[in-house]
Amino acid sequence: MPSLWVDADACPRIARDIIVRAAERTTTSTTFVANHQVPLPPSKWVKGLAVSHGFDAADDEIVDRLADGDLVITSDLPLAMAAIERGASVMTTRGEKLDESNIRARVQMRDFMETLRASGEHTGGPKGYSDVDRREFANALDRWLAKNAG
């Protein structure tokens, strides 16, 4: 049975709660990986893994532990690309599926925006996490679990 791996450093609390409830409901092994302890309820199915504070330490830990068919939940595009290359499914906390068909274009756009910001351009940050985002994520996660975890 596939496992869920959550890049917990930037995971919104609302998304974390959705993931915990889904993991419990579907008895899916789920690990929140971060460079700090993530507050989680006691659970047979959900655990936290605190890693060193090095750059990309949590990302590296997730990629090292992935098995083919696992789901990684992240908005970190380099982590998403590495996970896809290892045979994992990837979803953002907004419910967007990242895969071979779209990850390279997303990484290129991220790099372009980073170049703009480095040149002094104000590009703004990501929009806030909305009720629509929460609903889209919960629905996408439920669909993935129904298809892959049962």
UniProtKB/TrEMBL annotation:
Q: Which family does it belong to?
A: Belongs to the UPF0178 family.
Q: Which residues form a coiled coil?
A: none
The record ties this protein, via InterPro entries, to: UPF0178
Q: Which HAMAP family match?
A: UPF0178
Classification from the root reads:
Bacteria, Pseudomonadati, Pseudomonadota, Gammaproteobacteria, Oceanospirillales
Spell out the NCBIfam families in the cross-references.
PRK00124.1
Q: Which CDD domains match?
A: PIN_YqxD-like
Protein name (database record): UPF0178 protein HHA01_05510
Q: Which organism is it from?
A: Halomonas halmophila
